[in-house]
Amino acid sequence: MQNINSIHSEMAILHDKYILGVISPDNFFLTFSQLEKKLADCVIHTPNWAEFAKDIYIPYGFQDASRRQGSESPGA
User: Fold this and answer.
1) Is 17 domain-assigned?
2) Is residue 10 part of a domain?
3) Which site among 5, 21, 28, 44 is 20 to 30 Å from 63 CA-CA?
């Protein structure tokens, strides 16, 4: 991987301090729009959210978090 300081005239796809890929300025918006479309295609559409929500597990402690008062810590 190239170090972040070695690229000057191109936009970089970064992860932490390292470059995963490079996009030239001319192609940046084209690449961004393609990425946006791919992300939109990955969205899961749930027709019946109420049924789906029944299967979500909420750990004990989060259920009554709104009722806590005073100096009690959230992890107590």
Assistant:
1) yes
2) yes
3) 44
Q: What is the pTM of this model?
A: 0.20
CB neighbours of residue 23 within 10 Å: 15
Per-residue pLDDT of the chain (76 residues; tens, 9 = 90+): 444 444 444 455 555 555 555 555 565 555 666 766 766 666 555 556 566 566 665 555 555 555 555 555 566 5
Structural domain boundaries enclosing 48: 2-58
What are the phi and psi torsion angles at 4 (to 5°)?
Answer: -60, -30
Sheet (strand 11-15) strand order: 2-3, 18-23, 11-15
CA distance 53 to 46: 10
CB half-sphere exposure, 28, CA atoms < 13 A: 9
